[in-house]
Amino acid sequence: MFALKTLTLFVVTALAEILGCYLPWLWLRKGAPTWLLIPAIISLAAFAGLLTLHPTGAGRTYAAYGGVYVMMAIGWMWAVEGVRPDRWDAIGALVSLAGMAIIFFAPRGT
């Protein structure tokens, strides 16, 4: 149950960060309306708050989060931007996710 809750929290955190960065990208690169910066700011604030909910130290949380972020970014590229990942995208994302699991779920003494 701990692993499922942790992974879910990482996924929600990654979505908040990706959305918070994607909306300004749309504004700067694609000429989207300026008002998109408001939900971007809210999303990035939520991202920062969500990082504090993780049950371990900040450094380990950030390191492990990176693996989930890579996986989510590849999924975003496919689902939102319509760019189908190739096998190298998939392999890289899986390697990143494996690294996340090693960092976050490795048995450690208390």
Structural overview:
Belongs to the UPF0060 family. This protein has 110 residues and is mostly helical. The protein contains four helices and no strands. α1 runs antiparallel to α2, α1 crosses α3 and α3 runs antiparallel to α4. The two termini are 19 Å apart. The mean pLDDT is 92.
Brief description of this entry?
By secondary structure, this protein is mainly alpha-helical.
What Rg is obtained from the alpha carbons, in whole angstroms? 15 Å
Q: Could you say which overall geometry the principal axes of the C-alpha atoms support? A: flat
Overall pLDDT metric = 92
Largest sheet: none
Number of helices: 4
- Taken as a percent bin, the fraction of beta residues is under 5%
* Order of SSEs: HHHH
Lay out the secondary structure.
Elements: H1 2-30, H2 37-51, H3 58-79, H4 87-105
Helix pairs in contact: 1-2, 1-3, 3-4
From the structure above, extract its key features.
110 residues, mainly alpha, 4 helices, flat
